[in-house]
User: Which sequence fits this backbone?
């Protein structure tokens, strides 16, 4: 009974809601605010910030 109730929560909230929000808004926003991507075009800077967030989430969850 515990597995039946826990797995949907974990899959829905942790994987599909929390991880994308955290990688895009928290980590990606921090990279953009840090000024390391100031010399790039806005679209390219956003893409690199999102990629950094995705890499960080992948390293944390593996």
Assistant:
């Amino acid at each position: 009974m515990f597995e039946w109730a826990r797995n949907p929560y974990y899959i829905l909230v942790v994987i599909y809601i929390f991880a994308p929000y955290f990688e895009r808004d928290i980590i990606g926003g921090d990279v953009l605010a840090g000024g390391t991507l100031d010399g790039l075009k806005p679209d390219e800077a956003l893409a690199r910030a999102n990629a950094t967030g995705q890499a960080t989430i992948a390293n944390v969850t593996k």
The chain is about 85% helix and 0% strand. Residues 35 and 52 are 14 Å apart (CA to CA).
